[in-house]
Amino acid sequence: MSITIDKLTLKEYPEELQPRERLDKYGVRALSDRELIAILLTTGSTKKTALEIAEQVLTRHNGLRGILDISLEELSSFDGIGIAKASRIISAVEIGKRISLKGQEFKPTIKSPEDVANLLMEKMRYLDREHFKVILLNTKGQVIKCETISIGTLNSSLVHPRELFKIAIRRSAASIILVHNHPSGDTSPSREDIQVTKKIMEAGKLLDIKVLDHIIIGDKSFLSLKEKALI
């Protein structure tokens, strides 16, 4: 017995065929290529479901790689895919391309306190308030991101390990380096600098995120708490 499908929406599929339900239940990585495209399509045509149309697109173009450079005109020519749906798919593909290119950008590698100073000295030496930053590193010691955690007063900054590690976890950092400036230009660490660093290091041990160093930036000078054996 055949069943005629009249523009079935994804919500009307049996639960085991609902990509959005499966995404919610199992996560996006559990979805097949055709399910991802079907979610973008949302609905099918009078003759085919969104999953069937997605399968047709992938088959004709030999998988996801084949649709990387598909034109709007070519994609919208499929039965059940108009300009609106084709635009949505092409936009999603373009987002993926741009994310991929971002991942290929140069990532400086930190091997010493000098590398940190070279990276941040000119950005921090003239600041008139203490800025507390964290450099997030991957397993190769490459910089993932440099984030400002807090901005303090003329001679102090406030930082809580919770806020710092929230960022590190979100960015999947393997290790971190703490950095803050002294507007006075004097890189001598305060007792608070040392205490805060040790507190953050203890928190890092619990989270398995190593705190490699704490660098203090002055005026054309810097100090490593690790090199001075202060941590």
UniProtKB/TrEMBL annotation:
Cross-referenced InterPro entries: MPN (IPR037518), RadC_JAB (IPR025657), RuvA_2-like (IPR010994), UPF0758 (IPR001405), UPF0758_CS (IPR020891), UPF0758_N (IPR046778)
Pfam families linked: RadC, UPF0758_N
Gene3D superfamilies: Cytidine Deaminase, domain 2 (3.40.140.10)
Keyword hit for Protease: yes
GO biological process: proteolysis
SUPFAM superfamilies in the record: RuvA domain 2-like
UniProt keywords, alphabetically: Hydrolase, Metal-binding, Metalloprotease, Protease, Zinc
GO molecular function, one term: metal ion binding
Domain of life: Bacteria
Keyword presence, Hydrolase: yes
Ranges where the MPN domain occurs: 109-231
PANTHER family: DNA REPAIR PROTEIN RADC, UPF0758 PROTEIN YEES-RELATED
Record-linked NCBIfam families: PRK00024.1, radc
Family of the protein in this entry: Belongs to the UPF0758 family.
This protein's name: DNA replication and repair protein RadC
The species this protein was found in: Desulfonispora thiosulfatigenes DSM 11270
